[in-house]
Amino acid sequence: MGLIMEVTSEYLSPEQVATLLDVKVGTLAAWRCRGEGPEFYRFGTLIRYQRKTIDEWAASRCVATAPKAALTQPNPLP
Prior knowledge:
By secondary structure, the chain is of the alpha+beta class. It has helices spanning 14-21, 25-34, 51-59, 68-72; strands at 11-12, 41-43, 46-50. The protein is elongated.
């Protein structure tokens, strides 16, 4: 019987990140080409992301919604 080890890595593949963010792998590639999206590492031909960086990048995209009262009040005229 062989020993089964679970290998966990802080580095994620584009496929894993795409699954986490619910986007296509091609979207990640486009973001990399445009200098957008989360920071990544290049190891030779391999692209990898750190989980911590993905979490921080996603959190930085949080958009606060306006309170309901602010949406219903008319804008004051100058």
